[in-house]
């Protein structure tokens, strides 16, 4: 989750998010080089009188400053597309979780098991404890096994919502009458937080998402406890 003074992206909790952070830094370095070059050129132009009675055209420089940006764009587009298609891939998932957005809570269905479904409401302010985060914690957390490929099916029951976990690099629109699919695998144990990311009505800010990432054995224990 985001902590105090965290200006950058959250730490990646999935391989995809780690790659997204690398890509973000990569693009930032390219932007730094472009900004430096352009500012150097602008300052030089302001401080010098560049007049020549004989120079009418410059084929070489024009070719260069047309082709160079095109090459730079390729260096951004290639890793970007690679990531885009990697995120689209659903590789042999070991578990499917269905999230349904409602005004204003999420409900979850573990369709691999019978009768394993629950609603997940935000913990209201008057029930806060020392250990809970305001506007982020829910009464029923999603429990998921770490290091296993998980398929998410996201949909909504009333209006548009968006199921989001920033540290997993996941953001999927929840649309009524439509199933959207995404996948991830969580690389470490812990609690991951997210919030609905589609302006969905008055209590839009009060339908958080909480994932408890646990070792597979604990997950099996939780499943057997829940389906008793
Ligand atoms: Cu919503």
Automatic annotation (TrEMBL):
Residues 92-225 form the Cytochrome oxidase subunit II copper A binding domain. PANTHER family: CYTOCHROME C OXIDASE SUBUNIT 2, CYTOCHROME C OXIDASE, SUBUNIT II. One of its GO terms (cellular component) is mitochondrial inner membrane. This is Cytochrome c oxidase subunit 2. Belongs to the cytochrome c oxidase subunit 2 family. The keyword Mitochondrion applies. It holds the Pfam family COX2. InterPro entries: CcO_II, CcO_II-like_C, CcO_II_C, Copper_CuA, Cupredoxin, Cyt_c_oxidase_su2, Cyt_c_oxidase_su2_TM_dom, Cyt_c_oxidase_su2_TM_sf. Its cofactor is Cu cation. It is found in: Mitochondrion inner membrane. The chain crosses the membrane at residues 27-46, 67-87.
């Amino acid at each position: 989750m985001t902590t105090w003074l965290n200006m950058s992206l959250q730490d990646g909790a999935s391989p995809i998010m780690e790659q997204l952070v690398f890509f973000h830094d990569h693009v930032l370095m390219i932007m730094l080089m472009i900004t430096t070059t352009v500012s150097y050129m602008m300052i030089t132009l302001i401080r010098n009188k560049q007049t020549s009675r004989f120079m009418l055209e410059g084929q070489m420089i024009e070719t260069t400053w047309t082709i160079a940006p095109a090459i730079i764009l390729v260096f951004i587009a290639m890793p970007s597309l690679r990531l885009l298609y990697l995120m689209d891939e659903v590789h042999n998932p070991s578990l499917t979780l269905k999230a349904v957005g409602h005004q204003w809570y999420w409900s979850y269905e573990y369709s691999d098991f019978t009768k394993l479904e629950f609603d997940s409401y935000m913990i209201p302010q008057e029930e806060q404890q020392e250990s809970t985060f305001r506007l982020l914690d829910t009464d029923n957390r999603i429990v998921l096994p770490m290091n296993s490929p998980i398929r998410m099916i996201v949909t909504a029951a009333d209006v548009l919502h968006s199921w989001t976990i920033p540290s997993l690099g996941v953001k999927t629109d929840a649309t009524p009458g439509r199933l959207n699919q995404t996948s991830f695998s969580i690389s470490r144990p812990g609690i991951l937080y997210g919030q609905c990311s589609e302006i969905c009505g008055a209590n839009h800010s009060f339908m958080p998402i909480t994932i408890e990432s646990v070792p597979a054995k604990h997950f099996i224990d939780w499943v057997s406890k829940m389906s008793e």
